[in-house]
Amino acid sequence: MDIIKDYIPRGRKNRPGSFMVPKYVTIHDAANTKAGADAEAHAQYLKGDVAANKPASWHFTVDGGSRAKDSTIKPPQIYQHLPLNETSWHAGDWNGDGNMASIGVEICENMDGDRAKAEANAARLAAWLLQELELDINRVVQHYKWTGKDCPRVLRNRPGGWGEFIEAVQKYKNGGECMFKDLNEAWYPSIIKQAAELGLVAGYPDGTIRPKEPVTTERLIYILMRYRNRDIHHDTIADLVNGWKRSVILIRNDKLDGGSSLGSGSFISEDGLILTNRHMTENHKKLTVTWFGGVQYNAKFVGDSSDADLALIKVDGIKTKPVRIASSVPRHGDFCVVLGAPLALKDSATFGIVSYPDRDSGHYVQVDAAINQGNSGGACFDLQGNMIGVPTLKFVGPTVDNVAYLTSVIEIRKFLNAR
Ligand SMILES: [Zn+2]
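# zinc ion complex -> structure
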């Protein structure tokens, strides 16, 4: 699935040619259910006489295939009608951000096409645009946002339709597995994925990176300029914190003896299983979890470890993004980021280095990141976003600074594998 560039000729009313820095990706439904109203037909319309003098244009049309006149099946296609840095007339808001600062994407509704494929390809295109333009997921918007028009009408009127579409975009954007499906050789996948996470490369909209293709001088300059224009460490940590903060939660334990304690935990499955410290669940009567955004759930106790300070609790009926548990202990001196709820201040992040990777025969990882009461049971990540341990204890005293222990991934894996 390549993008077919078939630009509207210059000098017509429907190619205003004004320079734009895109800040949004606006999704439309084409509202034409006729057979044959596919991406190619829309490209022909935009280049034809009828559209020439109308303020009518957009950047991409995506279809799910169609049937040619001789009834052979045409594969799904994406047509691009305008460059990414030119405005077009698609949002109906005249000089607003819809027309002046957003990329217009039309999804075909032709009855001889596969609508599900058209939506999937539009989601993939939107994910690629977000990478290419360095935009967040919340910049994928409905035409409705600009004028209140009921568009994209199919996605809007199907219950859950828009949410599913955004979920698909998110999946393609940082799904790893879905992006760069041609990364299957031994040594380079992780380094290319890192480059993508840093925003240095975006791959192609069909989900490939084409690692063996030569790079043009133009492309090389583009990558070098992207590299030069960013503060790598800042972006890495901010991306990491924002990428994982929804996976770490605040836990309140109302105990059998009437007391209570507060700590942290992290989701380790998509259906709400939470890893925390055993000392966070001791004597529990009622366990309450506060998720990102403040929404609260009751959790049930699942089990704990007999030899490590680890336990599992679970919230039923929610869909969550599990942390990625590192496959090995971190390197001595690696950077690390702690997420959790010190002093019940939820969604807090602190930063440090791995002071020593295997204290107490590999039970613990020593870090100098600030850890306080309430961080217990949360998560500590390396800069690749792998969870390297559970903040479990710290040394306290008038002359002690920044000596804290994580329960290591060796202990975590042992505990989880034994279940
Ligand atoms: Zn629209």
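# post-check
The chain has a mean pLDDT of 90.
The domain at 3-174 is CATH 3.40.80.10 (Lysozyme-like).
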